[in-house]
Amino acid sequence: MQSQPGQLTTVQNILKGKLGEIVIQYKEILDTLKKVDQFINEAETKVMTVVTKKVTSYSLNLASHFDLMQDKLNICMESMEDMVHFHYSDSNENEKSKRSFLTQQCSSSVSYLLKQKLETLEEKMSSLETHVLAKENNLSSRLYKTEAKQMLMEQILVGNDDVVIQGKADLSKIRQDVDRLASQHEVWRQDLEEFKEKMAALEILRDALNKVNKNVSSRRDLSKKLKELEGDLTQVKSTVAKLDSTSTKQGKIWRYMN
Description:
It contains 2 helices and no strands. It is mainly alpha-helical. Helix 1 runs antiparallel to helix 2 (about 95-255). It is rod-shaped, with a radius of gyration of 64 Å. The two termini are about 100 Å apart. Mean pLDDT is about 65; it is low at about 85-90. Keywords: Coiled coil.
């Protein structure tokens, strides 16, 4: 006996429930992917903003420091020259030589001071470059970690894609099963209709047989009653014959007595 339509409805409800669960999981995966993309974009934006601000700040500070030192050196040189010109006139050659010597000494001193300042500045520059490199390495490390996270997220996305593909395959299989069950349900429905038609034909045949059996029973009753009537008729004939015989004898006796 094939499955009943009620069992088919139960199977369809189970399949619809599983299909709904797959759709919900697919939506959750899409929401997770959107959040991951948003997180990666925000991280990249923050890293680039920090790097740009740090580099710009260090560059501006360094340029300002160089400009300030250049202004101070220019002022120092002008002051030294004014001082030499103030103490010595240009009228005497000896004074010119002394002035030239002093100017040379001042220039040497200023050059030495400038050299020291330049070395100090170079040390600060080196320290600043080291600091900037350390910051860049730190940012590079953070960027590398972010890229690693992004790669991990991409792997997760690929895995989720595999899950989605598998879910689509399962969904397609479920749809095929639903279609197959719907086709089977149609076959069952046709079988049920055919069974109902056969039952109706059997009911008609049963009613006809009941009528035939009823007619047969009636005929048997009539035959039995007919036989009983025939027996009664024979008995009546016998009684009539006896009465006729008795009547004949009485007539003879009556005639004899007269």
